[in-house]
Amino acid sequence: MKLPVSWLRAWVDVPWNDRELADRLTMLGFEVESLAPAAPPFSGVVVAEIASAAPHPQADKLRVCKVNAGPDHAGGGELQIVCGAANARAGLRTALAVVGAQLPGDKTIGAAKLRGVESQGMLCSARELGLSEAGEGILELPADAPVGASLRDYLRLDESLLEIGITPNRGDAMSVLGIARELSAASGRPLRAAPHPDVAPARVQIDEQFPVRLMPGAGCARFGRRIIRGIDNRRAVPVWLRDRLERAGLRSISPLVDVTNYVMLELGQPMHAYDLAKLKGGLQARRAAPGEKMRLLEGSQVALEPDVLVIADESGPVGLGGVMGSAASAISGSTTDVLFEAAWFDPAVVAGRSRRYGLITDAGQRFERGVDPTGQERAIERASELICAIAGGRPGPLRIEELPEELPRRSPVPLRASQVRRLLGVAVPAAEIQARLRALGMTVESPTADGWHVTPPSWRFDITIEADLIEELARTGGLDAIPEAAPTGARIIAGSSEAHSSERSVLQLLAARGYSEAITFGFTDPALQAKICGTTDAVGVRNPIASNLAVMRASLWPGLLNAARENLRRQRERVRLFEIATQFHRATGGSVVERRMIAGIATGARLPEQWGSPRTDSDFHDLKADVVALLSLGGRAAECRYEPGASVPSLHPGRSAQIARDGRVIGQLGELHPALVQEFDFTYGPLLFELDYQAVTQNAAVRYAPVSSFPQIRRDISFTVAADETFGRIAERVSVAASTRLLELRVFDIYQGKGVESGRKSIALGLILQDLSRTLTDADADAIVAAVRAELRSSLDARIRD
Q: Could you give the CA distance from residue 80 to residue 118 in angstroms, rounded to a whole number?
């Protein structure tokens, strides 16, 4: 939120300079992101009046202007300025940079000749002075701007502007009044009303009302309105009001629009102005009917859903409650009669509707966080007095419709002095506790010797428990005023468990294998998730921050794929990422199941670029080696079976596998499906794995295994089997046949092609044999090999090759 410091000082006379004021706000919990003057430094720029503007004799697009810059320049005479702005005309008061002026960007103005005509300065645009990003033509000033005066002084460009970060729970602070309340409490200075000196209170001059009906349960529990007739919406907006709006980041449009925006910024109550002539019958706050549509102020037409709150007349919706008005009732320059609206909308009814329709509005942001349910009268009165002072008009009576049972109620919150002392680590005197809370607008009652009942004011939605009140005491007293103290109490040091590997060991292993940890959103795109995970019952987000983040992730792969793509776009040739996070599934019955997973992605070369080996792209077996290393942390890698073909549609059907252990699937690995490779614009298919984190870190029971003191013996065996036979089944049958004497099984050759029957593959195994009690003889080894051959023939239809 941006606002000028002078606007705050109009509400509360704080004793601090601008820098100290900004520091105090930060200590109060409102981070000041910037404190800067309204315009960048420049000098030598004055208010001037164009006396005449004649065409340049040598250039069609240039004008030769005679400019009056006041008595301090050219001896009170006129300066000749060559200007190319289309709006340069006689009688215009504008900004003149005289010879020697210093403009933003270290630009110095000097005398020059343009197409043979001398120019003694420069008429400036708002962009050239750093006042605006856009600058069509030279700056136009009011007709009463004092000629010869310094432009910085006249426009108060040295005034400080604050940019404040407001946390989502403090909707009450999204206004000048809200911040002024905080400064008043911190400084002890009282709040004061801040009408502009030229603005008088509006007097009721007509007895005319507009009927309004609130439908129970719709989400609008309070609706204030007032008719004002005879407004001239084409009048100029006063400089002071226009400057405050522009320095708060809003553009001046017309008296009615500017006044409603001004009241919203000042009081925090969004308002809407309807063209009274365009309304048909009374207004009704209700939910949208099936099939209803509405054209919004910005021109788009939206289809309304039944959970959307609308303000409607007899012809249909004329406003999207708490978000934006309809083009059907929009005000224009010809509007003379207006209906002012200030309402209270339930935050739960407004939340998410703006993003659903792609509309992020200032009003929507405030209603989502909550506005004061008692502030509607004040806002309408303020808007009425401003519009009548600026554009004339005859106000009618102010009327309020409300549903008292649907308005929020502030219940007393108990507060104990002992709890204040325990949480803050310092005792706060009882009188000071009461003074600080009352300064924030709270009602404090003392039912017991050790505590109080504190009722928050109507505008504080965030005060619900005792800890909230203690936080307020810490804020207003200053966190820097609380002395540092060492923590006290018993420290319990938990022992490590042998049943599970630590997360640190997992992180270290993957880092050693070249992976970097990633942290991605828990939300993802529903369409992308459906392509990656298949048709699962996704867990939706009630109020998504964006349409492509509308469901909770059922897999960690969408976030990792997006992260890898962004890394590759930034010329990272070799990417290895992993993440440990939660995935979400809808269980039978509708409950949400959370499951902690570890997932990774690998793209690019097998090894970083080096002279010792040629570049080779990573493949399925490289990824499998990483997965085996992970599963070996707990000593249970040998128990896992790798079954061809993953159960998810996002992996290549011929280059993927699912991992099973103890009769259940614990993960998937493989290469991304070619269709998704193309959709993500990858050059080569990235490799992915995802495992149940619990299964990865679950350790096998530690058992003693004796080490043989007798030599090993090796025998090799070669055979052919069906091309789709897995090594897991082969290893299982070899282990059964060789029994306990098989120390290790090695695969040293796999071949398909010439010399091998079609549909089969040749495999060569190395059997490392050893006995615990004696040295194996050649006869022992030959017997084991014969048993293995027989088992492979009978179980796998293996054909032994000699």
A: 7
CA 487 vs CA 424, 483, 484: distances in Å: 12, 12, 9
Max mean pLDDT among 543-547, 586-590, 676-680, 704-708 falls in: 676-680
Give pLDDT tens digits for 215-232: 999 999 999 999 999 999
Tokens (6 digits) for 409: 């109620």
Q: Which helix (H) or strand (E) holds 8?
A: helix 5-11
Q: Which residues contact 402 (CB under 8 A, 6 or more apart)?
A: 214, 221, 222, 223
d(CA 656, CA 620): 8
Confidence of residue 481 (pLDDT cuts 50, 70, 90): confident
What pairing do the DSSP bridges indicate for beta strands 212-214 and 283-287?
parallel
What CA–CA distances, in Å, run from 159 to 8, 36, 247, 680?
Answer: 12, 8, 10, 50
Q: How far apart are CA 334 and CA 231, in angstroms?
A: 9
Residues 6+ away with beta carbon under 8 Å from 707: none
What average pLDDT score do residues 92-121 get?
91
Torsion angles phi and psi, residue 108, rounded to 5:
-105, 135
pLDDT at 447 over 90: no
DSSP-derived secondary structure letter, 326: B
Least confident span in 198-207, 302-311, 724-733, 759-768: 198-207
Residue type, 291: G
Measured between alpha carbons, how far is 558 from 579 in angstroms, rounded to an integer? 12
pLDDT grade for 199, boundaries at 50, 70 and 90? confident
State both tokens at 669.
Answer: 């690995």
Once rounded to an integer, what is the mean pLDDT over residues 318-345? 92
The DSSP annotation for 91-152 comes to: T-EEEEEEEEEEETTTEE---EEETTEEE-EEE--TTTTTS-S---SS--B-TT--TTSBHH
Q: What is the DSSP string of 478-530?
A: -GGGSPP----S----PPPPSSB--HHHHHHHHHHTT-EE----SEE-HHHHH
- Count how many Cα atoms sit within 13 Å of the Cα of residue 775 in the half-sphere of its side chain: 4
Q: What is the mean predicted confidence (pLDDT) over 407-422?
A: 92
Per-residue model confidence as pLDDT tens digits over 28-48 = 989 999 999 988 999 999 999
- pTM of the entire predicted model: 0.71
603 touches 479 (CB < 8 A)? no
Dist. CA 454–CA 410, nearest whole Å: 10
Structure token digits, residue 249: 């980041």
**Residue 195, pLDDT score:** 60
Q: What is the pLDDT of residues 262-273, one digit of tens each?
A: 999 999 999 999
Give the span between the Cα atoms of 677 and 680, in whole angstroms. Answer: 5
CB contact at 8 A, 321 and 345: yes
Spatial CB neighbours of 214, under 8 Å, sequence gap ≥ 6: 220, 221, 223, 284, 285, 401, 402, 403
Burial tier of 796 (Cβ tally within 10 Å: 0-12, 13-18, 19+):
middle
